[in-house]
């Protein structure tokens, strides 16, 4: 029987709405821009049911807390903080990547300008900090709260490190597969790792179990990002909400393209490299790029790497030696993330 995630997600949603409630009319638009980004309002700040993202990270946090024997409801402030931190990074990513749409809607900066987009992201980061401090109201002692905050802060620094590398690599003609993995370890895996580790900390797990969960989240995060790279090229735009042309046109250092470039180099070819060396790529170049990726077996390679990281994540999960329905839910969730089409 499928595990029902609804109670967890509903509690997180309630906490998020309370954290971002407008408490001063003079600055209402700031909070409304955050609410817009989370899918609660339209561009005229009217209530709407818009795509809200997967809420994956808070779910991982709460399931880990429950799996180790904790009361997941007491950890909801931390799960909400994690979701806000994730969305702060998306607000800034959209500006840095000049992305005009996210989840089938205009991005915050494209509607209200870059300065307001930056400030909205900053505000969301600050609210995530306040959310962590709400753990004191749930009965957690100061030492436990500080351990959880440290994990989240370390993940935030790693996230920024990964984003730095992503931006820096845009100017690089070629990067190694090891450099790519270092980038996604910061950009994606760090926060997934922190999510399950924080849940385990708040559930009262031993240090060994916390670290095993951190390893599970790290490997799952690597697999998750590789699947994201695959969907960025071969996914269905009506499902993913993102054009499959954009990653190619922007010459993103995604794993399929990197693998194909290295595959060509080993064989003395430079067809894809020559295309990527052009001042700019056009829509007319996309079919040729796709053919070259297919020739190299890039999609198959990327999928095999995602599966390998997923298998390693399951080994970490097994190392916790925990038997609980929430543990089974974590395992099932990991499979759905690696096999997803969105």
Question: What structural keywords apply?
Answer:
342 residues, mainly alpha, Farnesyl Diphosphate Synthase, two-stranded antiparallel ribbon, 16 helices
Topology, element by element:
Layout: H1 6-19, H2 28-37, H3 56-67, H4 76-96, E1 101-102, E2 105-106, H5 108-112, H6 114-133, H7 142-169, H8 177-202, H9 207-234, H10 237-240, H11 244-249, H12 255-266, H13 271-276, H14 286-296, H15 298-319, H16 325-338
Antiparallel strand pairs: 1-2
Helix pairs in contact: 1-4, 2-6, 3-4, 3-8, 3-16, 4-6, 4-7, 4-8, 7-8, 8-9, 9-15, 12-14, 12-15, 15-16
Structure description:
The protein is an all-alpha fold and about 350 residues long. The chain has a single domain, classed as Farnesyl Diphosphate Synthase, CATH 1.10.600. It has 16 helices and two strands. It has helices at about 5-20, 30-35, 55-65, 75-95, 110, 115-135, 140-170, 175-200, 205-235, 235-240, 245-250, 255-265, 270-275, 285-295, 300-320, 325-340; strands spanning about 100, 105. The chain has a two-stranded antiparallel ribbon with strand order 1-2. Helix 1 (about 5-20) crosses helix 4, helix 3 packs antiparallel against helix 16 and helix 4 (about 75-95) packs parallel to helix 7. The chain is globular, with a radius of gyration of 20 Å. The model has no long low-confidence stretch (mean pLDDT about 95).
Brief sketch in words of this structure:
The protein has 342 residues and is an all-alpha fold. It contains 16 helices and two strands. Strand 1 and strand 2 (105-106) form a beta hairpin.
Q: What is the CATH topology?
A: Farnesyl Diphosphate Synthase
CATH architecture level-2 label: Orthogonal Bundle
Structure annotation, total helices: 16
Taken from the alpha-carbon principal axes, the silhouette is globular
**Beta-strand residue percentage:** under 5%
- Integer average pLDDT: 95
Total domains, how many?
1
């Amino acid at each position: 029987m499928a595990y029902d995630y609804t109670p967890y997600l509903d509690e997180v949603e309630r906490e998020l709405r309370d954290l971002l409630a407008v408490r001063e009319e003079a600055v209402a638009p700031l909070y409304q821009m955050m609410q817009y980004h989370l899918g609660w309002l339209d561009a005229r700040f009217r209530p709407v049911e818009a795509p809200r993202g997967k809420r994956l990270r808070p779910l991982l946090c709460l399931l880990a807390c429950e799996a180790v024997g904790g009361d997941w409801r007491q950890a909801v402030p931390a799960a909400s903080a994690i979701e806000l931190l994730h969305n702060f990074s998306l607000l800034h990513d959209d500006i840095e990547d000049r992305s005009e749409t996210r989840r089938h809607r205009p991005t915050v900066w494209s509607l209200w300008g870059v300065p307001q987009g930056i400030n909205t992201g900053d505000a969301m980061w600050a609210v995530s900090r306040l959310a962590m401090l709400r753990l004191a109201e749930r009965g957690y002692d100061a030492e436990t709260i500080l351990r959880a905050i440290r994990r989240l802060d370390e993940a935030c620094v790693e996230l920024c490190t990964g984003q730095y590398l992503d931006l820096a690599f845009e100017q690089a003609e070629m990067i190694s597969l090891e450099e790519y993995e270092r980038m996604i370890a910061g950009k994606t895996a760090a926060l997934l790792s922190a999510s399950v580790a924080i849940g385990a900390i708040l559930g009262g797990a031993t240090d060994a179990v916390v670290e095993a969960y951190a390893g599970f989240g790290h490997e799952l995060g690597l697999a998750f990002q590789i699947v994201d790279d695959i969907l960025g090229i071969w996914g269905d735009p009506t499902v993913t909400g993102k054009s499959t042309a954009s990653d190619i046109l922007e010459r993103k250092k995604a794993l399929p393209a990197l693998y194909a470039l290295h595959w060509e180099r080993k064989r003395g070819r430079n067809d894809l490299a020559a295309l990527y060396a052009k001042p700019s790529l056009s829509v007319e170049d996309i079919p040729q790029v796709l053919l070259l990726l297919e020739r190299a077996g890039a999609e198959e390679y990327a999928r095999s790497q995602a599966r390998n990281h997923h298998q390693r994540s399951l080994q970490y999960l097994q190392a916790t030696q925990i038997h609980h329905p929430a543990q089974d839910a974590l395992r099932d969730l990991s499979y759905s993330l690696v096999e997803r089409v969105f």
